[in-house]
């Protein structure tokens, strides 16, 4: 890895900190992404709409609540 200071005069501590950040980012980028955690079924929107939808009609106002 070659690092070139273009402007300024960093101290050895500042340069070491910058190199540590660049190396940490490069190491994190090379790791495979972590698998996504499985979603809980209670938060699945398909659970709410899994039954039959209320049909429109003259008494549909009485069926507007969908028990979950």
Label this structure with key terms.
68 residues, mainly alpha
The number of helical runs is 2
How large is the share of residues in beta strands? under 5%
Q: What is the succession of H and E elements? A: HH
Mean pLDDT: 79
Largest sheet: none
* Helix content percent band: 25-40%
The number of distinct β-strands equals 0
Class by helix and strand content?
Answer: mainly alpha
Show unreliable segments. Answer: none
Shape: rod-shaped
Spatial separation of the terminal alpha carbons: 58 Å
User: Rg, please?
Assistant: 29 Å
Detail the topology: elements first, then pairings:
Elements: H1 12-30, H2 45-48
What do these coordinates show?
- It is a single chain.
- The chain has two helices and no strands.
- It is 34% helix and 0% strand.
- The chain has helices spanning 12-30, 45-48.
- The mean pLDDT is 79.
- It has 68 residues and is mainly alpha-helical.
- It is rod-shaped, with a radius of gyration of 29 Å.
What's this entry about, in short?
With about 70 residues, the protein is an all-alpha fold.
